[in-house]
Write a structure and sequence with these properties.
mainly beta, eight-stranded mixed sheet, 3 helices, 25 strands, 38% strand
Length: 325
């Protein structure tokens, strides 16, 4: 419960849609009245007349889906600019104890907007960060470290894969350092891959796409009499692979499988700290593993089978087909 004077101040500040700086000031003051959070981030989202918050603990099961659909963890009422499932937000803790925040666009048209006005589709941040989805401003505050009173200007970097450095190596491109005081660091990442844009193969295919070190992971999709296999590189999974209903696929193998009663954005496959995970992105029917509904689950190299709940009958079997070097 916020103190009466803070409620009055907040209500005055929210009579108009707040700017990034004003939204940050509101969130910092509200956060000062709250109990310390567990490791991770606390989100404050606001628009005209509204302020609310949610925790994003630094654990694989603690992700938050933001969107317009009632199943989302954070529901934003903006039909013009917010997709049903807009972004997935998750947190982790680095070896030095510093929490980080990842914001991943779920294949929307507009993505999200940083405080500098740029449109993005994937970021990783440390320190405070502010971003905008439609008419809503979201302020993310880390659970540890000093929170500056004014919104810090972020040091922006870009992650790009270096073809000459080998698999899994990255090169950072960043502006020259400046005297910024407390630093908020934002790394721009590549957006997700849509499974419908990948080529599929019949199960047991041994042609040009036989198991090889470049494509060490395999996903077998089955539904009714339809079966298709898609293989992935490490880079694919570092970006994130989205699975959902698709009107258009690159080949006929996936078309009948991804055209049934699954959400347009249903699952995310992603690699984190050398481990592959499955995230349910606030789907309507949910996802099951071993008969149990899951929001997030690790994918074992020796094999993990997930099932889309509901009437679709879609099953997904994940496995590693080649050991990583």
């Amino acid at each position: 419960m916020l103190p009466t004077d803070l409620v009055a101040w907040r209500d005055r500040a929210l009579r108009v849609a707040p700017s990034a700086g004003d939204a940050y000031a509101i969130a910092v003051r509200a956060n000062a009245e709250r109990e310390p959070a567990e490791p991770g981030y606390r989100l404050y989202w606001m628009t005209r007349g509204l302020l609310a918050s949610a925790e994003v603990p630094a654990a694989s099961t603690g992700h938050v889906v933001i969107g317009r659909h009632e199943k989302c963890d954070v529901v934003l009422d903006d039909e013009r600019a917010v997709s049903l499932r807009h972004v997935l937000v998750r947190s982790a803790v680095l070896d030095d104890g510093c929490p980080t925040l990842s914001v991943l666009d779920l294949r929307t048209h507009d993505g999200f907007e940083l405080s500098d006005g740029t449109k993005q589709h994937a970021i990783m941040a440390s320190g405070p960060v502010v971003f905008r989805i439609g008419s809503h401003t979201v302020v993310a505050l880390p659970s540890t470290g000093r929170i500056p009173e004014a919104l810090p200007s972020p040091l922006v970097e870009r992650f790009e894969r270096d073809p000459g450095a080998g698999r899994g190596h990255e090169v950072k491109i960043q502006p020259a350092p400046a005297d910024r005081g407390p630093i908020s660091r934002v790394t721009l990442m590549r957006g997700t891959i849509d499974l419908a844009e990948r080529r599929s193969f019949p199960p047991g295919f041994t042609g040009e796409w036989s198991p090889d070190p470049a494509h060490p992971f395999e996903l077998l999709l089955t539904m009714g009499g339809f079966r298709a296999v898609v293989r992935f590189t490490v880079a694919d999974l570092e970006q994130g692979v989205l699975i959902g209903r698709a009107e258009k696929c690159v080949d006929a193998g996936l078309r009948p499988i991804l055209a049934e009663s699954i959400s347009r954005v249903h699952l995310l496959l992603v690699r984190e700290k050398g481990q592959q995970f499955l995230y349910d992105t606030a789907s309507t029917n949910g996802t099951e593993i071993d008969g149990r509904r899951v929001r997030c689950a690790p994918l074992a190299d020796e094999g993990t089978t997930a099932r889309i709940a509901g009437k679709s009958g879609l099953s997904l079997h994940w496995r590693a087909v080649h050991a990583l070097q």
